[in-house]
Design brief:
alpha+beta, 30% helix, single chain, globular
Length: 151
């Protein structure tokens, strides 16, 4: 597996983001969907990576700088056919290492509260993330779970 920075212009990557947004809308009311589209992921405060095995796209993840000491994990996604193979863990480890390299003191995330998000919540908890209050521009939402990790 190789993790590399991505400019979000490849057809496989665009299809994965489209699938990600679609799947978020299946389980989550529109007002509670916080997944970012292609244009939002291209903003300068966001670094986006993809995971590849030769020419096969396996997944993606992003790191958004909230301020000089606080980052947010965004757009964690593994292709459906390759789930439960350690790809998300590998991406999360990469994002954690980058956040530490940047000198962030805290890394936070928002994920869904529904059962379909349980694997994601379990992954984050297993990597030391703990429940927290809404951060940045988020507000209390029964459809969201907020987690953070001190670095």
């Amino acid at each position: 597996m190789e993790i590399r920075p991505d400019n979000l212009t490849g057809s496989q990557v665009m299809a994965l983001i489209k699938e990600h947004l679609h799947n978020m809308s299946l389980d989550t009311p529109p007002e509670s969907v916080h997944a970012l589209g292609l244009d939002e992921l291209k903003k300068p405060e966001i670094t986006f990576w993809t995971v590849w095995e030769q020419d096969e796209l396996l997944g993606c993840g992003a790191l958004k700088e909230l301020d000089s000491e606080h980052g947010e994990i965004k757009s964690m996604r593994t292709v459906i056919s390759r789930r439960k193979q350690g790809i998300a863990r590998k991406m999360l480890e990469h994002i954690l290492a980058e956040a530490q390299r940047r000198g962030y003191r805290r890394l936070s995330l928002e994920t869904g509260s529904m059962d379909s998000f349980a694997p994601a919540r379990n992954l984050y908890a297993g990597m030391g993330f703990q429940a927290c209050s809404p951060f940045a521009d988020y507000t209390d939402d029964p459809n969201s779970v907020y987690m953070t990790k001190e670095l």
